[in-house]
Design brief:
Helices cover 6% and strands 54% of the residues. It is mainly beta. The protein has a 22-stranded antiparallel barrel.
Length: 641
Amino acid sequence: MLLTRSSSSTYLRCCILSALGVFAVNTAMAVTPSDPDLETVNDSELPQVELDKIVVTATRTPTKISNTIAQTRVVDKEELQRYQGQSALEVLKQQPGISHYTNGGMGTTSNFYMRGYDSKQILVLIDGVRYSSVSNGGAALNLLPADQIDRIEILYGASGSSIYGADAMGGVIQVFTKGSNVDRSSMSVTAGIGSNDQYLYGVSAQLANTTGTTLSLSASRNESDGINATVPSNVGTYNKDKDSFESNNFSIALNQRINDQWLAGVSALYSKSTTDFDDGDYKNAHADQENGSAQAYVDWRYMPSSSLKLQYGHSIDKSDSSSKYGGVFDTKQDQISLVGQHQLAVGQGVYGVEYLNQSLDSSAYEIDDRDVTSAFLGYVLANDKFDTQANLRYDDNSQYGDETTYNLGAAYHINPDWRIGTSYAKGFRAPTFNDIYPGYGGNPDLKPETSDNYEAFVEYSTPLQSTRLTGYYNDVEDLISFPEGTAVNVDKAKVKGISLTSDWVVDSYLFGGSYDYQDAKDKSDYTGRVDFNQNAFDYNDNHLPYRPEHKGLVYVGYRLPSLDVRAEYQYVGDYYSRVANTDAQSIDSYGLLNISGNYKLTDNLSMTARLNNITNEDYTTDVGYNTDGTNFFTSLTYNWF
C-alpha cells in the first residue's frame, strides 16, 4: 500500500498512533501464550545483553569496558537497528555528553560537541582510518547512514591524543562497518517508509565458508522530501520550501583467515548524497557530497596475546555546492600504520608507527598537502585488582612542526563490584587548512591548540547493571580565533562537568539513563578585540555556544528473542548559539519523547518502527532553523538463511 503524507499533522499523528496501537496488541498476543499449558520462555532462550563489552578504541587493543579508565561507551548493532533510515549523528546525539545543532532536516549543515569540545577537536575513525574535512575540520557524521554500520565506540576525553594523535583532544569516535563478524551465509532485503515522504530501499548479503573466507556486501538508497529548513526570522536565507535529501550508500568487508596466525582483509564504506538548502538569492541551492573510507590490512598473531598489524587506509570528504559562497572542497587522507601489541610478564605493551598524508583540492584556493609522521608507545594492565594505562606519542607535521602528548591513568578494584580511578591526558588539535592559509584569513605561523584534561570516576558494576559517575576538568589553551579577521592563538576555555550513566538488565527488561552537567566557559584574557565591524567585545566568562549546562535521558525497554521495544525521554537544557550570549542567541530547553522497536513477524520477516517527538514538541537547535515535529519511520526486512 502506498502511503502519502497528509497536510494535517494531527491526522498523521492519529494514524501513526492507531497503527502502533494495533501493532502493540498483536505483539502482546504474539508474546503471551494462548495455551495455559505452554511453558514460559527459559532464561537460556532469552536474548543475552552484555553490559561488559569488548572495545579496542580506548587502548588500541581489545579490552573490557570494565577495565578501561577513560569513560567509554559502545552502540552495538541491536541498538543501531532502532535508527534505521537515519544517520550516525542521529545515533550519537542520544548518547551521554554529546550535544549538537542542525540547520534543518536530513543532510543539512550540522555540528556536534562532546564534553565541551567542538567536532573539529574530536577524532572520527572508520575502521581505524581518519575521516574528516581538513579544510574546516570535523567529520560529516550526518552523511554516514546508520544501516551501513555494525557498531560505534565512543572514547571520552583526551587520552586518545597519545594513541591516535592530533584532533583527539576531546575524544575519539570510531565507526565499524558491517561484516567483521560474519558467522553464516545470509541475504536480506529492506523497504522502509517515513514522514516527509522518506523512502529507504536496501539489500545486503553475507557469505561464509569453511576455508575461512567471509564476505559482506550492503547497498541502500535513502531519500526524503525533507522539511522547510529556515524560519521567516532568518533574514536573507528564508525560503518557504522543503529541502530534500537523497543518498546512495554502499559497504563491503572481505576477510580471509589464512591460518591460525595470519588474517587479511579489506573493508569500505561509501556514501554519495545530495542536499537542498536555502541560500539567499539561490533559492534552490544544493550540495553534492561524497564521503567514506576504505582500508586493507594484514594481521599476524605470532603469540596467543601478541600481534602485529599492517594497515593502509584512504578516506574522502568531498562537497560541491551551488551556493554563491560555495565551491568544491575535496579532502583526501592516506594513512599507513604498523601497530603491535606484545604480552609482557605483567600487562601488555602497545606500539606503532604511522604515516599520514592529507590533501585538499578546492576551487576556493589552491593548496597542496601536508604529511604527518608519528610513533607511539603504550602500556596496558587489566586484571581483577588494578587497571593501568600509559601512553606516549610523537607527531611531526610538515606544516606546523612537532608535538608530544601523553596520558597516565589508573583504577583500583575495591571489590568485584566497585572500582575507582583517575587519569590525566595532554591533548592537541592541529590547525586546519582554513586556519593556516591566508585565503580565509589564515595564519601560517599558528601553533596547535593544546589541553590539559583531568578525569576521576567511581563505578559500580554487577551482572544486572553498570553505573558510573565521572568528573572531569579541561583546561584548553591557544584556541584559534579570528578576532580581527586573521587567525591567532589567543582564546582559552575551561570546561568542567560530571557525567552519570546507569544501565540495567533485569530478566527481559532494560532500563536506565544518563545525566550530564557541564560548565563550559570562555576564559580568553585577550583585550582590545574587535569584530569585522570594528566593534569592541569581551567574551571572558561567557558560555561556549551549543553546550547545554544540563542534559539527561531516561529509557525503559523490553526484549525477547522476537521483540525489542524501547521508550526514551531526552531533556536538553538552555544554551546559547553564539559566544556573545545575547538574548537573541538563546536556545530554550526542550524535551523529546521517542519510542522504537523491532518485531520478528516470522523466522524470516521482521519489522522495525520508530516514532520521534511523540508530543510534537516545538523546539529548535539553532537560531533561525526549523526542526521536525512528530515523525516516524518503519521498515520490513526479509532474510534468507
